[in-house]
Amino acid sequence: MTEVTLNNVVKRYGAQQAVHGISLDIADGEFVVLVGPSGCGKSTTLRMIAGLEDITDGEVAIGGRVVNDLPPRERNISMVFQNYALYPHMDVRENLGFSLKIAKRPQAEIDQAVREAAVILGLEDLMDRKPAALSGGQRQRVAMGRAIVRHPDVFLFDEPLSNLDAKLRTQMRVEIKKLHQKVGNTIIYVTHDQVEAMTLADRIVLMRDGHIVQVGTPLELFNAPVNTFVATFIGSPPMNLVDGEVTNAGMIRLTDGQEIPVPSAARAGVSVGQKVQLGFRADNLSPVGHGVFEDGEAAELDLAVSLSEPLGTETLLFAELAGIEVQGKMLNPRPVSPGERMTFRLTLGKAHVFDADSTNAIRSN
Asked: Is-above-0.85 flag for pTM?
């Protein structure tokens, strides 16, 4: 069993603190993604787990063994970097088996491990090629294969897809998901791309400024963000946020005077006069007759569309609400002209309320 545990882990560079006492338990076989903006501490955390960065304070344990003072080679981890780090003068077969050769493993063992990795990643027809003759996606598969042959307890991925174009990133996300299903090892994966996090992770660890902001499944972070940072970082397009104030009639008065009922999920948690932000996703704001509308609480808004982006089966609509540009989605789309006024239905049952000062979510329970 290979659990990974971080207990109050701190990283300082002189007077600058990059990671602020984070704690995290990662289960055996779990796929955990560390995600956040640049400089949030996610790669530093990964490198401390790998042993490539010293830990200033706290403990990192792998498989129940504290590894703070162990060099990387003794942690039984394999790391896949964003730049592939392949040896250009070696063919695929030699690249795959090089770490085992350095470890002086028997040639028969090396050959078997290389064959197994090649089959898992579909590299059988590329074994005699040098890295220069491979596409970006093929090089990344070789880098993953080189990690597989060592049979590590934990795979560490540091932004492995950032050098690929959009189409290849999509293909490689599928490859990495399949790899996890086949090998079942614990995977810790770092990215700044929330789409990668949402599609790959069993659990997401969202970081900001060296702190963990929220940990949960992709749907937990999407449906129940703890604050406006999570709400706008997770999900594409980002959640709409509109400023308002709670009135004594159980309404949120927007800055333009319009009033929208406080969603029932937040009603018991707000107070009269409280400055808030009403949050809702584009999927929950649709023109009447062009959305999937559930029974329940809703509000109708008369909005002028400023811009439309046809996406085939749906059209993304941009409109202004209380001085803020918001986005909605139109299903079964038709052409929309700039300035056209449309009646939108806002599904309040899926809306969120955040305190304007703390930015924290307000919920009744």
From this structure: yes
Query: Which pair of structure tokens corresponds to residue 321?
Result: 């609400």
Distance of CA 102 to the CA centre of its chain: 35
Task: Write the single-letter amino acid at 62.
Answer: I
CB 170 within 8 A of CB 137: no
β-partners of residue 32 are: 188, 203
Mind listing the pLDDT tens digit for each residue in 23-44?
999 999 999 999 999 999 999 9
Burial 64-94, CB ≥16 within 10 A → b, else e: eeebeeeebeebbbbbbebebebeeeebbbb
Nearest to 9 by CA among 189, 210, 204, 182: 210
What letter does residue 125 receive in the DSSP assignment? G
**To which H or E segment does residue 180 belong?**
helix 166-183
- Cβ-in-10-Å burial (0-12, 13-18, 19+) of 322 comes to middle
Query: If pLDDT is split at 50, 70 and 90, which confidence band does 234 have?
Result: very high
Spatial separation of the C-alpha atoms in residues 179 and 248, rounded to whole Å: 55
- As a whole number of Å, the CA-based R_g of the chain is 25
Residue 6 is inside which H or E element, if any?
strand 4-13
Paired tokens of 156: 């560490």
Task: Give the CA angle between residues 225, 309, 195 to the nearest 5°.
Answer: 35
Q: How far apart are CA 257 and CA 26, in angstroms?
A: 48
Structure tokens at 16: 């600058």
Rounded-to-integer distance, Cα 195 and Cα 198, Å: 5
Q: Using one digit for the tens of pLDDT, what is the confidence trace for 130-147? A: 999 998 888 888 988 888
List residues bridging with 79 in a β-sheet. 156
Per the omega criterion (within 30 degrees of 0), is the bond before 237 cis?
Answer: yes
SS3 category, 212: strand
CA dist 148 and 93 (Å) reads 13
Distance CA 192, CA 198 (A): 11
**Backbone CA torsion sign across 167, 168, 171, 176:** negative
Q: How far apart are the first and last CA of the chain?
A: 37
